[in-house]
C-alpha cells in the first residue's frame, strides 16, 4: 500500500482504505454497521481515540445495560447455599463454563473450566500445583508475559530446571546445492538453585515437564503457530537437540489472555494441557475474573496443597484431617466463586457470538495493517524513516500471523530516538490512549530493542524500573510505543492517530508545517503569543513572539 497523496481529506482517505480493506472492515452480518455500533454503544469515546485494547478492551453500553437489568431482576444467592437462589447461581456458573469451553472449541469430555480471579491467578495455580521434580524442566519462549515467567520460581524452588528459548531461521544446503531454511532453537538455561527444596520424582517414577508460550505476543502481536504443541509433545528431542531437558513427558501451557479476543485456540485440533483466559481482554467487563481450561488428564497430575471453603467435603478443626472434593472445578476454586461476575460474562459472550471472533479478527487486522503501512511510509524531509516497527519479519514455522497490535519507536530526522514517554504524554494531550514501555514482557522487549544483558543491568543500575520516565538510556530506547485495536475500533481512530504522529514528530521542509498527514501546507507558522505559568496559582508571564524550531522538536511547557 502506498502513502495516500497530499491534499487528501479524511473522507477521501477512507474511500481509498475501503477499496483495499472493505471486505474485511466492519461486520456485514451484524445488526449494526460499525459506525452505528460505535456511535450508539460507545458514546463515551466521543473526542477520544482509544488504542490500548491489548491492555483492556472496552465494554459496550448495551452490554452494561443488559448486565444491570439481569442483576436487578434476578436473585443470585451464594452457590454454596442450598436454596432456589443458590441453584440459580449454580446453573448460571455451569452455563458459563460451557461458554468458555465453546470459545476454544474444547470438548467438555476432554477439558474442564476452572474460574480464577484473572489470567495471572490461573498461571499461578498451574505453577503451584504442577508435579515438579528435580528432573523436571520449565521451558518458555522469550516472548512471554511476566505472569508466565513467574512460574519459574515454583520450578526452581522444587529443584527443577528452567529454560528460556527463542527461535531463529538458518539456511542449509543439501547435496544438490539447494538451500533450505530450518528453525534453530537458541537455549538460555537458568541455573538451578542450590538451596531449592528438592522434590523426588512422581510416585510413578515419571518426570513431567512444562512448556509455556502465548498464542499471541502482547509486545509484537505475533501469533505463535499452535503446531508447536504437537512438536514439543511428540518430538522434544529434535527441538532441543537431544539435550538433557528433552527427557520425560511434556505438557503445554498456552497464555491466551491476549490472543483469545481475536483468534481463540482450537483445542479440538491443538491439545494443549493448560489454557488461561482473561475476560476483560475479551469484552471489557468484568475485571478480576479469568479462567483456566485444563485437560482432564493434566488435572489429575496437579497437586493442591491449600484447602478452603468449597474445596473440601469434610474437615476437622482440631486434628490433621481433611477430605477433599473430587471434582476438578471444586478442587481448585477456593472459597465462594465470584458468581455475580460470572453471571455477567454471558452478556459479553453475546457480543462475540453476534459479531463472531473471525469477523473481529478480520476487522481489527485491517486497521492494524493500514496503520502499519502508513507508519512505514512516513519520512522526514531529509528522507530518514520516521518509524521502526517491531516484529515485521517472522518465521513461518513458528508464527502463524500477526494480531491487531503495532509496537514501534519513532526517530527524529537526525536518526536519534524519540522517547516513548514523550510520545505517550503528547498523545494524552491529543485525547489518544495508548501504552508505552515493555508491556510486562521483558524478553520480547530486550529481543526487539536489541538490549543485551549488560544494557539491561546498566539501565537498572541507572535507576530504571517499569513505568518510569527513563525512556532513553545510553542512546537506546528502554521500551516501545504500542497501539492495538478492538472490535469497536474504526478507520477514524487509525487516521487520527497517524495525523497525530505526523503533526508531532515528522520534520517537514523548512518554514513548512504539516497539520495533517494527508495534506501539505507551504506557509510559515509562528506562535503570536505564549503565556508561561511556572508557579501554580500565580500569574503567568507573556512572550509576544516565539518562532517554531526547524529541528522538528517541540517545546512542552508543563
From TrEMBL:
| Region: Disordered, residue numbers | 178-200
Q: Which InterPro entries match?
A: Aminotrans_V_dom (IPR000192), PyrdxlP-dep_Trfase (IPR015424), PyrdxlP-dep_Trfase_major (IPR015421)
Give the matching Gene3D superfamilies. Type I PLP-dependent aspartate aminotransferase-like (Major domain)
Domain Aminotransferase class V: residue ranges: 49-164, 249-494
Q: Which domain of life is it from?
A: Eukaryota
Please report the name of this protein according to its UniProt entry: Aminotransferase class V domain-containing protein
Q: What is the source species? A: Lactuca saligna
